[in-house]
Amino acid sequence: MNRFRLPYHLVVEEGIFGDIPECMKDVFPELRNSKTIVVTEENLKGLFGDILDEIQKDFPKSELYLIQKTDYDTAVSLAKYIAMKDIKLVIGFGGGTVLDLAKFAAFVSKTKLISLPTTLSNDSLASPVAVLGTEGKARKSFRCTIPDAIIVDVNVVKSAPDRQLLAGVGDTISKYTALYDWKLAGEKTGEAVDDFACMISHVACDSIIHGEAEELKSSAFIQRLTNALVMGGLAMEIAGCSRPSSGSEHLFCHALEENHSEQTVVAHGIATAMGSYPACIFQGRDTDMIERIIKHYGIPVKPSLNGVTEDIFVAAWQNASASRPDRYTILNETDLSTSRLKEIYARMEEIF
Questions:
Q1: 3-state helix, strand, coil in the chain (%, to 5)
Q2: Which partner for 186 in 80, 171, 193, 287 could form a disulfide, CB atoms 3.0-4.6 Å apart?
Q3: Nearest-CA neighbor of 243 among 299, 195, 285?
Q4: Domain 162-351, CATH number (from 1.10.3720.10, 1.20.1600.10, 1.10.287.70, 1.20.1090.10)
Q5: What angle in degrees, to the nearest 10, is found between the helix axes of 288-297 and 162-173?
Q6: 259: phi > 0 → left, psi -120 to 50 → alpha, else beta; which?
Q7: How large is the angle between the packed helices 310-318 and 338-351, nearest 10 degrees?
Q8: What is the pLDDT of residues 5-17, one digit of tens each?
Q9: Which residues share a beta bridge with 117?
Q10: Which helix (H) or strand (E) holds 237?
């Protein structure tokens, strides 16, 4: 049985970034006086300078660490710096790439971690996985720690571009096809499938697919999307792998990122939503539910709008399995002929 840990806190409130030590004093009474490093990016310092100043005032023994790259070497260098300086708390402030780097550095240095997402574009705010650059444009997923606390300031998230929130919706609904692929792998290869992790991932997905159709930037929807993304991360922590959230749709996304990043401009969550529609077709399932959510929120999955030409679309699907050859999905047994993929591409261009 896989051993797992859960965050001590999940707080979603307006203005909460100005009151972090107070909301965590029940489990970390010494937090305010801990030697702390706040990990973020230069552009976020420009956008949220006042908030970062306030956070540093709340943590008198803190320093700001501005990252230049989000790759493996940078994460290891940061972990070394944290260990050498005897830092006790890491605060990740930013989007998915910043949070992934902070998670990995905290994991390597065995340091407490608080996740402060500035957007809800994917489940990195809570997942035990860090996606980091390796060589060239290649990126790899590394096992790491899950945050000790996840704190979401509704006001900060509301200031994010709509497209980033739509990416979070896309990353959540992609669990619909990911879970099918995991269960298929269990049937065909004997791979272990954790029922509890599946249940949590299903709940996360259903909360968006079957939940009330609220306004994208309403406080209620931000709360619901946060919960869904966190549940996705917890499902991976319980399973000990990314299977509850990552299937054939993510393999398509990885193929785009690894082989076509110069031609395409598509966020991770948008790409997984774009992959979920064809994955439904490959799995022989009704696409109406996925199509309804994509259209309701206006998730921009039309391939050509993201620089994904017909040729790129075909190549990405035909090379998708190569990005994770050890992962059995519907792609191992479906027709990925050029003619079929071109038909699906044309259908997506027409309906989205």
A1: 55, 15, 30
A2: 193
A3: 195
A4: 1.20.1090.10
A5: 170
A6: alpha
A7: 130
A8: 788 889 999 999 9
A9: 94
A10: helix 219-239
Torsion, CA 54, CA 57, CA 63, CA 65, rounded to 10: 0
Residue intervals of the chain classified under CATH 1.20.1090.10 are: 162-351
Task: State residue 137's pLDDT score.
Answer: 65
- CA dihedral (253, 254, 260, 266) positive or negative: positive
pLDDT lower than 70: segments of the chain = 1-2, 136-138
A 10 A CB-CB count for 11 gives: 16
Q: What stretches of the chain show up as alpha helix (H) in DSSP?
A: 20-23, 42-47, 49-58, 72-84, 96-109, 154-158, 162-173, 175-189, 195-209, 219-239, 248-259, 268-282, 288-297, 310-318, 338-351
CB of 323 closer than 8 Å to CB of 275:
no
Distances (CA, A) of 133 to 72, 78, 81, 139: 6, 15, 19, 4
**Which CATH fold topology does 9-158 show?**
Rossmann fold (3.40.50)
pLDDT given for residue 135 in this prediction: 74
What length does the chain have? 352
Q: What separation in angstroms does the CA of 183 have from each of 180, 195, 230, 232?
A: 5, 10, 22, 17
Using an 8 Å Cβ cutoff, are 288 and 333 in contact?
A: no
Q: Are the beta carbons of 14 and 219 closer than 8 angstroms?
A: yes
What pLDDT is recorded for position 214?
77
pTM of the full structure: 0.91
End-to-end Cα, the chain, rounded Å: 43
Question: What residues form DSSP beta bridges with 13?
Answer: 153
Closest CA to 143 of 257, 321, 4: 4
Q: What is the pLDDT of residue 1?
A: 55
The pLDDT score that the predictor gives to residue 301 is 97
Residue intervals in the chain for CATH 3.40.50.1970: 9-158
